[in-house]
Design goal:
It is elongated, with a radius of gyration of 26 Å. The C terminus is likely disordered. About 20% of the residues are buried. It has a 5-stranded antiparallel β-sheet with strand order 3-2-1-4-5. With about 180 residues, it is α+β, with helices and mostly antiparallel strands.
Length: about 180
């Protein structure tokens, strides 16, 4: 039977490994990084002309380190003398690192959509993101280029072919070409 002195580190290690998915960043089309707060981003408009589902490969790093640390600590309490404790600690670190890596890759991977957008100003771009807004081919979108490129549904954006707003003009006004006002 295990003593509470041995069970407590094992439970602590398992709790540490279980929290690794919470460390994974929420990488969605509607999420903004802390670095992106308060920074300017360029905006353009376009129409989705194509889309396809894609697999997002998960990342590994923090989960591997956390799992190895937790496994090493938990394993070091197994055995009677210092040699068996050291060997069990090394084994626990290896197993914990592998488990932490697998957990992190599962938490940060998944599926997303690659959208092909024909921009009003000309040219096509591809943007990969999740699809919380349910965007579809034919939808008008706002293309925001800030800390990363993201799409969102255009609500009252300029119609296709519009040249954009004049500098200093009220929202919704379009640029006017010509000689200007009479003096």
């Amino acid at each position: 039977m295990r003593t509470p002195k041995t069970v407590l580190p094992i439970l602590a290690a398992l709790a540490l490994v279980a929290t690794v998915p919470a460390c994974a960043p929420a990488n969605t089309g509607t999420t903004v990084s802390a670095a992106g707060l308060g920074s300017a981003a360029s905006v353009s408009f376009g129409t989705i002309v194509g889309s396809r589902p894609v697999q997002v490969q998960g990342t590994g790093g923090v989960g591997t380190l956390a799992g190895a640390a937790a496994g090493g600590v938990a394993g070091s309490f197994i055995g009677g003398d210092w040699r068996s404790n050291a060997l069990a600690g090394i084994g626990g670190a290896i197993i914990g690192g592998l488990a932490g890596n697998a957990i992190e890759r599962g938490a940060t991977g998944g599926t997303a959509i690659e959208f092909i957008v024909r921009e009003d100003r000309g040219g096509d771009i591809a943007v990969v993101q999740t699809n919380e807004e349910g965007l579809q081919v034919g939808d008008r979108v706002v293309v925001t280029r800030g800390d990363r490129v993201r799409l969102s549904r255009a609500a009252g954006g300029p119609p296709p072919g519009a040249t954009g707003a004049a500098i200093g003009a009220p929202v919704g006004a379009t640029a006017v070409s010509g000689p200007g006002p009479a003096k």
